[in-house]
Structure formats: C-alpha cells, structure tokens
Amino acid sequence: MIKQMTLCLLVAGVVSGCSMAPKYVRPDAPVAATYAGQTEADGQAASASQTHVAEIGWRNFFPDQRLQSLIGTALVNNRDLRVAALRIEEARALYNIQSADLYPNLNVTATGNRGRTPASISPTGTSVVTSNYQVGLGLAAFELDFFGRVRSLSDSALAQYLATEEAQRAAHISLVAEVATAYLTERGYAEQYDLAKRTYETRADAYKLAKQRFDVGALSALDLQQDEALLQTARVAQLALARQRAQAWNALTLLVGQPLTDLPPAEDLSKLDLATDLPAGLPSDLLTQRPDIRSAEQSLISANANIGAARAAFFPQISLTAGVGTASSELSGLFDAGSRAWSFAPQMILPIFQGGRNIANLKLSEVRKNIEIATYEKTIQTAFREVSDALVARGLLDEQIDAQLRVRDAQAERLKLANQRFDNGIASSLDVLDAERDLFAADLDLVQVRQLRLTNAVDLYRSLGGGLLETTAVSSTATTVPTPAQ
C-alpha cells in the first residue's frame, strides 16, 4: 500500500508540472524610445557608460546633514512605510498558505469508538457492546494537479508577493523624496520668513522716522500713510510665512514619524547643492530601475497565472484520500500481528453543469489581466512623464535663477537710485516705496526659484529610481557620483 501511495504521489508530481496559463509576454512600453531633445545614440551611450541613478545612495545625493538625519529617522519611524513592510509579511504568508496545496498533507490519526447496541435491535437478540480503535498515517483529499490549477494559483500568489515587495521599495523611494521635498519647502518658508522679518524691522524704523518728520510738519499725511501701508504689508507677509512655515514643519514631522528634536544645523538654500547632471539614460531603463513599474508587472504576471487556474477548472479535479495503520476491537491489540489496515479512496469531479460559473471565472480572469496590462502601461507612461518633466525643468531652472538674480540686483540698484533722488528732492517718496516693494518681491521670488531648482533635482532623482540605497555602491566599474551644479 505504501508503495502504491508513493507511486501515485510521484506521478502526480511529474504531471503537475504542466500549466494551462498563457505564456507571459511583457507588453511593449507605450512611450517614445528617447526623451525629448535626446538622440537614441546619446541615450544608449549614457545608459551604457554612466552609473544608474538607482545606484546612487541618498546619503551621497543629499549632502545636508540635517536632511540626512531626517531621512534616516523617517525610514525607521514612518507609519506608511511600516505598513508597507507589514504588507510584505502578509503577502509572504498568503503565498506560503497557497503553495502548501502543492504538497500532500500527512496526518497521524488516532480514533476510538465504543458503543452498545440494545437487544431490541440487535441481530442476535441480545445487547452487544462493540469497540473499534485505529491508529495510522492519513492523506486527506490531496489534489493531483494534472492540469496545473494548484500550480497556477501558487504562481499567482508568488507574483503578488513579489509585487508587494516591489511596492514597498517604491514606497521607500517616495518617502525619501517626500521628506527631502518637505524639508526644502520648510527651508524655503523659513528663509522667506527671515526676509520678511528683516524687511518689517527695517520698515518699522523707517516709519518711526517718518512719524517724527510728520510730527514736525516735514512730511505730509499722505506720505505717512504710504509708509504705514508698506510697513503693514511686510507684517502681513511675515505672518503668512510664519503660518506656512509652521504647517510645513508639521507636514515634515508627520513624514518623519516622531517629534523633530536634536537636529543638526540647517543650511541656506543658496548653499545647498544637489546633483543636477544625473544621467537620464533611456526610457527602457525605467523598466528595471523603478520598483513601481516592476510591481505593476508582477501584478500582471499574477493575473496571467490566474487565467491558467480558471482554464483548469473546466477539466476534472482528481483528489486522493488514503490511510495506512492498525485497527483492532481492543485497545491492547492495536499493534498485534494481523492488525494492519489501509484505505485508498481516489475521487474525480468532472464539471458538467455549473450555471456558467467556470466560463464567467475565465472571462473575469481575462478581463483582470487586461486591466493589469493597462495599469502596467499607465505606470510606464507616468514614469516617462515624470522624468521628462524633470529634464525639461532642469534645463531651464538654472537660467531662471540667473535671470532672477539679475532682477533682484536691478531692483536693489533701483532702490539705491530712488533714495538718492529722493534725498536730492528730485523724486517723490512714492518712487522709493515702489522700489522697496519691488525689491522685497524680487527677494521672495529668488528664494522660491532656488527652492524649485532643488526640488527639481529631488524629482529627477526619484523619477529615475534613486533613493532606495543609503550609500552608493562602490565597484571597479562604477563611476563617481555627479558633482552638484554650481
């Protein structure tokens, strides 16, 4: 009997290697072969010769010690990332549960039964007490996977586990970028607040002098009101920026996952340089460098495997229940000679009429695969758009900063000349007030443009798959990390 069971299991293992799932073919990427303004030859050369951005560690990319501390703390305490990690454990457990059906479940069983039959219904006309004891090794309803149904379900669960694992990596990358962006936002508001505060203090001093001149009749009421309006404008800007900075700090605290204390000193945005000359490579590189694309592909593979399970449902399900052991009417005789017992109960279920259930399940699995194809293609298109947007901005933001610096310098020179003309009685105080307003606005715009330039570097780093590694891997073939643009 044991030999027969072993032979059946071996045959089942050999036959179950087949699968009715369609052969998986990766869909073509629905994007251009190169980014805008890039030749295919240039893209291929960059892809082959440069270090991939995904290999650049975030500690190497972000030189600011304060930002490094924030990112490191967030990776430990952020609750969304913690949930993503737990999702991996959940998917792994589900895969282990499903894959267990590939193997026979063997159980040691021990049963005992003792009963009395009354004389009124006993065949012998007398009451009878019967006993039955059994001990053995049992195989319960093991499906012989001739048509690959169980194998397809296991493959689907494995792909879902891998998709969850890739999704956690994508969440890791997103968190690094979100912390960096939130930090830059908070720093931008902080610098603008300091600027508004200094401007308010300067205008408060100027208003005191104007009030003194008004009191002695050297200044008109109109000019005094203009000075006060300029003072209150700076006060409004200071209060608005204080609110925005506090909210940005709260957003950063939420991302980090704990109160922000004992942080290294912060650097000004003008001193914080990030690498902008990151190698973009080709759009095809995104398929392997971005975890969100890999996660979408694994979900597609899972849906493809489910089609195999749905197809196998049209064919017979063959299961095997068997047992071998000893049986006796007396507990003390369980292991006596001649007490050996065995059972062998194969079962075949052939679907004849299911009310269209199997056809609907197959249609459902095919539709879900088509949904996953569309999702996979949309993920690629979104990644392509993110990289393209970052590359377009990279080529223009440095020029915009240079232009804004010229605007700021011009406004500063204008204010200087307006003051000179006012002191000489050539210009009115209104010209000075207008120059001061425009210089303040130019200073705020310069901070914003610098923040945009740094945020763009973060966006490009994230969209090319950077942020998963902590430090750049060192190898004999690796090139150095691109230096920040000056």
Question: What would the keywords be for this entry?
Answer:
Outer membrane efflux proteins (OEP); four-stranded antiparallel beta sheet; elongated; alpha+beta; disordered C terminus; 4 strands
Which SSEs are present, and which pair or pack?
Elements: H1 2-15, H2 40-49, H3 58-61, H4 65-77, H5 79-99, E1 106-117, E2 128-144, H6 149-215, H7 221-256, H8 286-289, H9 291-312, E3 317-328, E4 340-349, H10 357-423, H11 429-463
Antiparallel strand pairs: 1-2, 2-3, 3-4
- What series of H and E elements makes up the topology? HHHHHEEHHHHEEHH
The CATH topology of the largest domain comes to: Outer membrane efflux proteins (OEP)
Anisotropy-based shape? elongated
Assign the structural class, choosing from mainly alpha, mainly beta, alpha/beta, alpha+beta, or little secondary structure. Answer: alpha+beta
Q: Quick one: CATH superfamily of the largest domain?
A: Outer membrane efflux proteins (OEP)
Trace the largest sheet across and list its strands: 1-2-3-4
- Low confidence ranges: 475-486
The major β-sheet equals: 4 strands, antiparallel
By CATH, the architecture of the largest domain is named Up-down Bundle
pLDDT average, as an integer? 86
Helix coverage percent of residues? Answer: 55-70%
Number of strands: 4
Task: Count up the helices.
Answer: 11
In angstroms, what is the radius of gyration? 37 Å
Total count of domains: 2
| Span of the ends, CA to CA | 81 Å
